[in-house]
């Protein structure tokens, strides 16, 4: 009878190794970009409001990423440039208030996440993008004392693929995306 109860209890508890859901920490997540400024220098900017979830099953090497960036949170070191980049010439944040990324696949090399492929929806256009993960670590957060993961990722896209063509090609066509992200398990 004990054996039957044990089997029944295990079958009702669901899978032993399930995916964990992590909520993005907006204070430690910074999607940023770099683009050539008329060939003279590199313009850099970032977005200060990001939210989303990351689901990981490290045993099965699977997961999903769903991120939303508030386009109006764009910042560079120049307030006039921020206003110009937010207008219809570039991001048009009133018409397209969010930039989203939804993963389709995660690629692991052993226990290390090395790439994430998904759809980047920006400026009303959705296109596939593969992010190369240059750093990845999960462990207990030393202050919060909860499971926590972090990563750095990079990709290069062509801005015209998303319909952002103002001053092209004088302002670079290739845009480097850099993403630093941290998330805590919920």
Number of helices: 2
Any idea what the radius of gyration is? 20 Å
| CATH class designation | Mainly Beta
Distance between the termini: 36 Å
Strand order of the largest sheet: 1-4-5-7-8-9-10-11
Catalogue the unreliable spans.
1-16
CATH homologous superfamily title: Lipid/polyisoprenoid-binding, YceI-like
Silhouette:
elongated
Q: What does the average pLDDT come to? A: 92
Order of helices and strands: HEEEEEEHEEEEE
Biggest sheet layout: 8 strands, antiparallel, barrel
Query: Residue share in helices?
Result: 10-25%
Query: What fold name goes in the CATH topology slot?
Result: Lipocalin
Number of strands: 11
Describe the model:
By secondary structure, this protein is mainly beta. The protein has a single domain, classed as Lipid/polyisoprenoid-binding, YceI-like (Lipocalin, Beta Barrel), CATH 2.40.128. It has helices at 2-12, 79-86, and strands spanning 20-24, 30-37, 41-47, 50-57, 62-70, 74-75, 98-109, 112-122, 125-140, 147-158, 171-185. Strand 7 (98-109) and strand 8 form a beta hairpin.
List keywords for this structure.
186 residues, mainly beta, Lipocalin, 2 helices, 11 strands, 10% helix, 56% strand, disordered N terminus
